[in-house]
Each structure stands twice: as structure tokens, then as C-alpha cells.
Amino acid sequence: MSERDRIAILGGTFTPIHNGHRALLHKAFQTASHDGEGDGHVIVGLTASDLAEQTRSNGAHAAQLGSFSDRRAALESELSNLSTAYTASFETIRLEDTEGPAATRPDIDALVVSPEAKAQRRAHDINAQRVADGLPRLEIHTAPFVVAEDGTRISSTRIRNGEIDEHGRLMSPDGAGDPD
Q1: pLDDT of 7-21, one tens digit each?
Q2: Dihedral sign, Cα of residue 48, residue 71, residue 10, residue 94
Q3: Which of 7, 9, 79, 128 is the most exposed place for a label (fewest CB within 10 A)?
Q4: pTM for this structure?
């Protein structure tokens, strides 16, 4: 990474990785990769297990997330596959709090978030904190929702509940998917 690289940051639990996460990751690489000097850089904050447990509305879901190391390995594999289409490099970091380095690092240019109201509020709060601390505002880039076959957005919860697979295909009642 060079001093001229445009830096985009995003964060999440990313488990299981699904097409909605892929849309966020693509948006981050598109935001960081640009014409001009530098190739860009993407920082992906992976939620630490303790933080994931604290921020889940349903504590039972935290137990289903898997270990941090397993989630990081899956995320880095996904990032390696996606990054080949872009100039930007990437790194994963452990998120120990809900703001992460987006709130404090002066070299970050953009924050990539989902369209969920909670993510939008958090982005606004991070920018307010940055301004209060004398840092420049981050550009906020919002990835679109990705919907499943039934027109409802893809989510990790729906996948864990056996409603859909990672691509948004509806699962049959026995959890085996539609055998097309």
C-alpha cells in the first residue's frame, strides 16, 4: 500500500458469506480502485467473537457464528477471489468495537455500508465523531440490498434458519434446495 492509495473500509461478521456480503465487498473494491496514482486499498474489519455476541439481537445466533479464525479464513479466501478483478489490495483486521479504525484513522477515505438503517446511523455517527475529533468526513458508499428468489433480502439469519442458500435460492422444507 502506498501513501497515494485510496482507502475504503467496511466491517461485519461475514458468516456465512453470501451474495449480500459479496455486494458489499465489490462496492469496497470499486470505491478503493480508481484512476490516477495508487492502486487503492480495502480494509475489512471482521467482528471479534466477543463483539459479535454483544451486538447480536438474538444471543443464540452468536453461538452459530463459528470461531474468529475460521471466519477470517473464509473471508480471506473470498477476498482473494474477488480482488483479482480490481487494482486495490486488501487486508483483514479484527474489530473489537463497533466503530473500528473508521472513526480514528485519518488516512481512510470511504466507509462502505449496507442500506440497513442501523448501518446508515452508525456511518453518520462515525462521521460526527471524526468531525468532533478534527478528522475529515468519510465518503459513505452504500451497497444495494441483494434479494433472494422470494424477493426478500438475503441475510445470514435466513441462511442459518435454512430458508435460503448463500445465493438466495429457496431451500426445500428438508433443507436440500430446489433440485432444478
Answers
A1: 999 999 899 999 999
A2: positive
A3: 128
A4: 0.89
